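1st attempt posting a full record on here, be nice pls
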Amino acid sequence: MSATHEAVPETADQQEHGYTGNKDAHLRRLKRIEGQVRGIARMVDEDKYCIDILTQVSAVTKALHAVSLGLVEEHIGHCVVGAASEPDPAVRAEAIDAKVKEAADAIGRLLR
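the predicted structure (as tokens):
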């Protein structure tokens, strides 16, 4: 099994992740979302109109979905494709199955 595309890494810190190239952009988006969530809390604290609060919750939900979809795409493009490039056919099949299952499970959690 290749060192950079292990099916089960020893620790998550020992490998590059699919999002690594976009890490700064993801962090900026997440900080912006964090600010939106603080704004929603402030709206509740200030007794703002419920529909206005729900509108902001919807915006945060949409922003989180966008981050999630980007991460899923990066997982497929990096981790699944990396598993497919494993030279040992037996290991490759197992690695691909594991990475595809991870993606499918993550998508399932997003859809709940």
